[in-house]
Amino acid sequence: MKNVADDYPEMVKKMNHRLALWEQEHLGFPRNMVDPLQKVVETGPWKYVTLEQWVNHLRTAGWEEAADQLLNKYNPADDVSSAYGKATAVK
Questions:
Q1: pLDDT classification of 85: cutoffs 50, 70, 90
Q2: Model confidence pTM above 0.70
Q3: Is the dihedral of CA 21, 26, 31, 33 positive or negative?
């Protein structure tokens, strides 16, 4: 997959400006929470769910292969969740 941002710098600038305006309008007031989507972008999914929880969810929903792929990608021995809670393999 190609990142086309370098091919369209003016569009990137325009979209960044739109995003900044939206953030200011919707998030730029006192006592507002951090945008949850931005948090996930910054930290990955482990901010709100542990690997174990997600694997359990996938298995419960009948997505065994997806659960196995996730465990293969994020080996719990690698401590993918570091600051976000302990993640362990689920058998």
A1: very low
A2: no
A3: negative
